[in-house]
Amino acid sequence: MDSNNIFFKVIVGVVLVGYMAFIFYQSLKGGIAYKKEFENFKNSHKHYETMVDGGYWVWVMVAMAVVAFVLMFMAPKLASNGQTYYYYLAYGCIGLVFLGLSIDSYTHRRIYFTEDGFFFEDTYYRYRMLANFEFKNGVITHNCTVLMSNRDKIVVTKKIGEKLQEKQKAFKKAKKERHK
Predict the structure, then answer these.
(1) For burial by CB atoms within 10 Å, which of 16, 19, 93, 164 has the most?
(2) Distance in angstroms (rounded) separating the CA atoms of residues 87 and 10
């Protein structure tokens, strides 16, 4: 099939943009839920400690999105042989993915600790719900899967996992001292 065929271009465009828009929508939906639940959390917990691990990733993702959108608008200068449409499509989709990743980076790399629990993504968890920590020290990923007593799982960065473990131990120690 000829890549300049209008039918082919429409099909490729709809599929790619549709899929990338869906991915971006999922990230945006998570970001909106985070913002709403964080406001509720702030209203009910006046004293909390914030931890951000790798907050610079948000800015890296935003910068990459900006670069992708700039390249998208430079497509007529970059493309040859009538491929401008595909350059617009590719760079626009890449920009959308990086915008979604910036939202995900913001929500997944922040945690807020209170005396008896913590707020992560869009949920408040109590320290007594924490059942187990599984640290992964792979070549690429250094994260921690936190298993809850109700069988829920959350995946956090290694630093956040270590801090969670520390906070849980301090909570148990304080609880033990209160019951003496």
Answers:
(1) 164
(2) 14
pTM above 0.85, yes or no: no
Sheet holding 142-148, edge to edge: 130-137, 142-148, 153-157
Tokens 């039918």 found at: 7
Q: Express each pLDDT in 3-18 by its tens digit.
A: 567 888 889 889 988 9
d(CA 27, CA 38): 16
CB under 8 A, 24+ apart: contacts of 10-19: 12/86, 12/89, 13/85, 13/89, 16/89, 16/93, 17/89, 17/92, 17/93
The Cα–Cα gap between 87 and 72 comes to 6
CB 130 within 8 Å of CB 43: no
